[in-house]
Amino acid sequence: MIPRQTGLIHGGGENQRMRLASLILPVAGLLGLAASSASAFQPLPSATFPARSQPPADIARLREMLLDRGQPRLQNQAALALVQIDSAEAEALIRQGLEQAEDQEMFLALSSAIRFHRDIRFADELLRALASSKVAIRQGASQALSVLSEPRIIDKLAGILGDPANDSAVAQMAAYTLGASGRKLAVAPLLKALTSDSDRTRQSANEALSDLTGQRLGPDADRWTAWWQTCKDLDNERWLEMRLAFQLARRARVENELEAARGQVVRLQQQLYARLGTAERLQYLPGLGEQEDAALRLLAVTWSQEALAGADPSAQKVLAGILLRLSADPALEVQRAATVALGRVADSAALERLLVLTRSNRATVRAASGRALSQQATLDRPEIRQRQPEVLASLQRLLEDPVLEVVVEAAEDLGALGAPESGPVLTALLRHPSESVRKAAAASLERVALPSSLDAILKGLDDTSGTVRFSLVGALALLAGRAESAMKPLNETDRLRLMARLEIVLLKDMDPNVRARAAGALGECAPPGMLGVLWQSSQATEDVRVQEKAWLALIDVLARAQQSSLVQEWDRKLAMAKQPARRLQLLTEVMSRWTRKPDPKLNITPVQDLVVQVALEQNKWALALPLIREQLARPQRTEAEAQSCLRHLLQAGEQALADGNAIEAARIAAEGRTAVDKASPLAPVFDALALRSKTK
């Protein structure tokens, strides 16, 4: 197949464009033909031209642009404009340009414009150009004629193909044009050419028939004739359907092949990059960022971002330059990745670029710039901290974006920024009609909620979305926690309102996840007066998630209260409720927390005694034994306390022996015999334990 010449299409790999364009244009032509009636195949009158607009004619200026070989894009624009001008002067200029075979660039620009507009006025000039000595001109003329292929033109191409006096290269180009035309009328002259005396003509005809029909029958004229007998009676609509199906299948195949080739190039680049040293990579990345393939430029973004972390200032400057340049890339995925990567560049130029990108005409880029700005604001650079108000203003402006994706991202970024000033804006978004926006705003309020946001948060707990309510419960926990630390504290009235609403959510919200979150929030801030509510929610009638969270919250409240009497009271309640496992869990957890943060005013002994008692009741002697030994070693204890410790020690030894741990039982017996008075009634009991430990 003849590759398509450069003309109206810019950007991307030229070879790839040539291959794809040669497939796409015929398909597009077929789509138009299939929609038309059979009369579309009749030749147009010589005075009938395609409809064209009538811009103010500046032929002289267009002529100069067309002659400017140093500006291919201007040449293409001038050619397009001239073809659209319906004037004798413009037509004469086009014909003159097509006849000047020495000016290849001008001919290609004009033939591309004629092909784009399907203008049949210049068919004769294009037919004569097939005999040009320059390959590029023959190809340009052929491509233009292939889309202008009305019966008159096909007849002339058939004449060129069948004329033995023509050069074989001219016949080859005529065959190619007939094959690329997609017309049923082109089959007959190509079949006739299969019997030509010229090997080159027969080969060209075979290739053109394959391109026209999708069949691969070889140079055998009889096989092609037999096939044609089965298809020649098809109407034009059915013929075009077959042709279209073939072209679409071929385009899909070529696209798959191109995609596989791109993937192979990417893999080779990755292998090469892995073998380079640090200094070589720094020299390699700028060139990679200039590649035509977007996938390779995307690699440049990824590797530049990875290299930023350990780079010295000079290297960071080079990498930042790559990212800044690619943040204006025409490929969306490259521009987005480069924009996000700029969030890690501690540079005022990167910040300035991100502020500009918040006004991009691409919604995905605006969202990415918001995320990058929130990352930039966390960098420890004085010049960036000074411009934080600008960052905040840009993110707040993105909250008014018409695209929901951008609004959601901006709301999340404001939360990540942690700026208290964003609180009022985020609370206003809790009334947004989009659930995704309300979710993002509520999630951000978990990090930036202030007492002034309390009313809006409480109202937001009526939201129909469980996810929104879940996050807002977290925001209430944040407010209550700040009140506990005296950081922007809530007043007493607001604090009571907050606790009351958390209680309502815990008891009445329809979503068990929200109720569980409310229980956790109460565990962080609730006073002892809320223990009853938490106990109610920890019962078996509740969802298992709520039960677990409420029970842990109850432990949190008891541990934070630091009241031994309160712990003893709840131990009795658990004993009456016959919940031994929770009873032991409560006592051990409270004891552990109080031990980690010792308070001279806090008497932990009653809790330790309870742990020993409950553990021995449940045959957990290994848990009780260290505490018993600690009690025995305590210098200030009464006789009653000492006797109680010895009895607990003896009970632990008996349980150890019953569990088959004779060694530990013997050790306990020895400790007891040492600690007990020989006149004590416990002395012979310890002796007996020691004897049984030896014999077992």
What do these coordinates show?
- The protein has 696 residues and is an all-alpha fold.
- The protein has four domains: 14-36 and 54-221 and 236-252, Leucine-rich Repeat Variant (Alpha Horseshoe), CATH 1.25.10.10; 276-417, Leucine-rich Repeat Variant; 424-561, Leucine-rich Repeat Variant (Alpha Horseshoe), CATH 1.25.10.10; 619-696, no CATH class.
- 72% of the residues lie in helices and 0% in strands.
- The chain has 37 helices and no strands.
- It has helices at 14-35, 59-67, 72-84, 88-99, 104-117, 123-129, 135-147, 151-162, 168-181, 187-193, 199-213, 221-231, 236-275, 278-288, 294-308, 313-326, 332-341, 348-357, 363-376, 382-386, 388-398, 404-417, 423-429, 435-448, 454-460, 466-484, 492-508, 512-525, 531-537, 544-561, 564-576, 580-596, 605-617, 621-632, 639-658, 662-675, 683-695.
- α17 (332-341) runs parallel beside α19 and α30 packs across α32.
- The radius of gyration is 43 Å and the shape is elongated.
- The termini are far apart.
- Residues 1-55 have low confidence and may be disordered.
